[in-house]
Amino acid sequence: MKIAVIGQSLFGQEVYKELKKDGHTIVGVFTIPDKDGKVDSLGKSLIAEKDGVPVFKFPRWRLKGKAITEVVDQYKAVGAELNVLPFCSQFIPMEVIDHPTHGSIIYHPSLLPRHRGASAINWTLIHGDKKGGFTIFWADDGLDTGPILLQRECDVEPNDNVNSIYKRFLFPEGVKGMIDWNQSAEAIHNWIRGNDRVPGAWAEIDGKNVSFYGSTLLENDHFSSNGQPLEIPGASRPGLVTKNGLVLFGNDGKMLLVKNLQFEDGKMIAASQYFKAALSSTVELSEDEKQFAGFEEFIQMCVRKLRGEDEEEEFTVDYVEKKLNNMTIQIPHQLFINGEFVDAEGGKTYKTINPTDGQAICDVSLAQISDVEKAVAAAKEAFEEGEWGKMNPRDRGKLLYKLADLMEQHQEELATIESIDSGAVYTLALKTHIGMSVQTFRYFAGWCDKIQGCTIPINQARPNRNLTFTKKEPIGVCAIVIPWNYPLMMLAWKTAACLAAGNTVVLKPAQVTPLTALKFAELTALAKFPKGVVNILPGSGSLVGQRLSDHPDVRKLGFTGSTEIGKQIMKSCAVSNVKKVSLELGGKSPLIIFNDCDLDKAVRMGMSSVFFNKGENCIAAGRLFIEESIHDTFVERVVNEIKKMKIGDPLDRSTDHGPQNHKAHLDKLVEYCEKGVKERANLVFGGKQVNRPGFFFEPTVFTDVQDHMYIAIEESFGPIMIISKFSNGDVDKVLQRANATEYGLASGVFTRDISKALYVSEKLQAGTVFINTYNKTDVAAPFGGFKQSGFGKDLGQEALNEYLKIKCVTVEY
């Protein structure tokens, strides 16, 4: 009969051999992928591949609950008449189970139909059964409810446990791990390493079963015959207990060395200590020896739902799929809480809109108060009780590096999602929105094991002495609330530092741009972040953001957004539990252009300072001060360049200027320009919505803007250039005007006179000053504002301090 073997482990290997011995034709072996360079026993080349049997190593057979067509087609191509599933730990679709003429048979550690499922043997003991056993049965739609082919049973003794039943009956019946000494040294070596760490290859020595671990092949010229002989029944010659371990011989005269041995009572020893161990009741184990698996680990591995459950819990995502940008993109659309995508309480959703055409992209789960409670609880447990809180900082860094690598691998998909969700031009999204996000996570990954305290000399308490030192510790559960202009990059700027410091996070993306944050959540799961470390809650600021601000278990909140909302958050954080806050708020960044500048560069960078990312840029130059002698030339050249800009679909590689983020923002820009015209500012270009579907707004230029006007004071957050003129040579006056604002996020100056440039940089009241450039941010350079633009820093080493607390310890001795 033509048989496909679907499974893993030594048991699968033994079944394979028995089927071959009985004259059946194995047409294919389907097992799990290699893990950490280690091949599963069933997939070893010495067995199936040596026989010329094709070996398939599929990571999974299903995706989102549906069979993967390519995988199923490869399976069907082998032409099996029967499937045999020995200890299969993957989800096998019923389409595969039912495909062969004779169906499929499965093995199960229970006397069916008494107990079913992954923990059947446990329930045998829990229910006090007098009989346990082993069942082979036909698979049907219930998986372990099909007709029984064969059963073996054993008595359950009063003091049996899972371990003892497996050792006494199920394991010997299911897996023959005993070493066959009548084979080459290489074959024995492969058998031992194939069962290392579990279940352990074993042989009888002095009437006792002994398991062998840590095998290496030996070269004849590296062998010394100095050692004490050890008789091993069935071996071609006695082994030798040497100072390096136990030397064993194959039937080909070649040798291997075994480092460790384990007795039936679980005692592990160095093989070199075999004869000494026999004389002693206790043995000191090395740390390496303690690493080897006990029998329970084997049980967990091979009884994990004989079929129907992956070795690791399957991570499923209910994607929305879109064919865009010459690719199929997969978009998660649910909340991400405790490592899983879940619906919001009550199944509430809302539509997220593509600003290019005003049409809905998909329905997104809308978080409720109860969802915030679940997310914060998950983050708190992950921090206080979970693996994350115990993790070595360097291992934490490895996770962040892995996440950055995954983001880079998915950068085109992320950039496409960013474009359709926020209106960002694809080329900019790829380079800046996504590119800088990847760089940010890599930068902070490198900081994980470099967060250090210091020692402080203090007055000694004579005659005693004192040692005082500081420690930097993570804060705990952190909430992060981000804006809609750079959805992924704003997430990265805050979350990377937060995680590098060892905190857990609950993040609320902007309600109008949730999709890249949800895709990011998927990547954290693929990177194997522990559950609860990252939680993403799309929802409204008034509900989700407010509850995060008020929550007593949140110890830090990082926010980027408007000054008005920032003030509300600061108040709520103070009243609730005086949680730590960092705020990156509004701006009205001045850019001063002197007549001794490089005018070509000043025009180019001046336009970038305003129109970059459609003006939806927190550090955008909200007001340009142009020295009188070059004012008219500057304006003329800017207008000429604007006329060359292509407005269009952000996914079109030739597009310069995409749609504004959402309809409400577009309407505010129209209103903003109407106020400027009403106050008699000179509208030189633009000022209205583009006549096409979507939320497009013309690049706009106002001149003759006076200091008292609304558009001179308030931020537009759009592609609107506000130009004011200043008198030739009046440096101090223009500085006074530039600083006459309640904002202090960024600023800039263009001049060839370095002394003037440095003088102006000292006087400008802003957290960032650009000289002869603009928008030049870097992951290593701190970013944050003064005055009502907020406080606290993103990026650079300073950002870590926003997510750390300093503890001072004094010892007297």
Briefly characterize the structure.
This protein has 813 residues and is an alpha/beta fold. A 7-stranded mixed sheet has the order 3-2-1-6-7-8-9. Strands 10, 11, 12, 13, 14, 15 and 16 form a 7-stranded antiparallel sheet that branches. It has a 7-stranded mixed sheet with strand order 32-33-34-31-30-36-37, with helices on both faces.
Explain this structure.
The structure is a single chain. The chain has 813 residues and is an alpha/beta fold. The protein folds into 4 domains: 2-174, 3-Layer(aba) Sandwich (Rossmann fold); 185-299, Roll (Methionyl-tRNA Fmet Formyltransferase, Chain A, domain 2); 324-584, Aldehyde Dehydrogenase, Chain A, domain 1; 589-782, Aldehyde Dehydrogenase, Chain A, domain 2 (3-Layer(aba) Sandwich). The chain is built from 25 helices and 40 strands. The strands form 10 sheets. It has a 7-stranded mixed β-sheet with strand order 3-2-1-6-7-8-9. Helix 12 runs antiparallel to helix 14, helix 17 runs parallel beside helix 18 and helix 19 (599-611) crosses helix 20. It is elongated and about 100 Å long. The termini are far apart. It comes from Sinocyclocheilus rhinocerous. Pfam families: Aldedh (PF00171), Formyl_trans_N (PF00551). InterPro entries: 10_FTHF_DH, Ald_DH/histidinol_DH, Ald_DH_C, Ald_DH_CS_CYS, Ald_DH_CS_GLU, Ald_DH_N, Aldehyde_DH_dom, Formyl_trans_C_sf.
